[in-house]
């Protein structure tokens, strides 16, 4: 706990941000896992829809400061490669 009011407020804000970040990262992992399951089952149309949802979610996480833009870009690129291999 902080030693003064400003430090206590900072602690409260940090805790709120930590919880929010954890929730968003957890949902991103869930979306990636769902996408990977669809790719393994070779369900191309459903995987494409899941990829669009995942890309949108990662972009929103970048705008909130949860992920660095290059991290999200790397994740999207790798998922897109898997999707393209599925289509070939």
Secondary structure elements and their pairing?
Layout: H1 5-40, H2 44-63, H3 69-87
Helix pairs in contact: 1-2, 1-3, 2-3
Structure characterization notes:
- With 88 residues, this protein is mostly helical.
- 10% of the residues are buried.
- Helix 1 runs antiparallel to helix 2, helix 1 runs parallel beside helix 3 (69-87) and helix 2 (44-63) runs antiparallel to helix 3 (69-87).
- It is elongated.
- The protein has helices spanning 5-40, 44-63, 69-87.
- The N and C termini lie far apart (56 Å).
- It has a single domain, classed as Methane Monooxygenase Hydroxylase, Chain G, domain 1 (Up-down Bundle), CATH 1.20.58.
Output the keywords.
88 residues; mainly alpha; Methane Monooxygenase Hydroxylase, Chain G, domain 1; 3 helices
Mean pLDDT: 94
**CATH topological fold name:** Methane Monooxygenase Hydroxylase, Chain G, domain 1
Q: What is the H/E string?
A: HHH
Domain count, please report it: 1
- CATH class, please? Mainly Alpha
Measured between the Cα atoms of the first and last residue, the distance is 56 Å
Quick one: biggest sheet?
Answer: none
Gist?
The chain has 88 residues and is mainly α.
């Amino acid at each position: 706990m902080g030693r003064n009011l400003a430090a206590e407020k900072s602690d409260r804000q940090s805790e709120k941000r930590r919880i929010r970040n954890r929730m968003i990262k957890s949902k991103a992992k869930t979306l990636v896992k769902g996408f990977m399951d669809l790719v393994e089952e070779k369900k191309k149309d459903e995987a494409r829809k899941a990829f669009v949802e995942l890309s949108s979610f990662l972009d929103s996480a970048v705008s909130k400061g949860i992920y660095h833009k290059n991290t999200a870009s790397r994740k999207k690129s790798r998922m897109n490669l898997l999707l393209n291999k599925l289509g070939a």
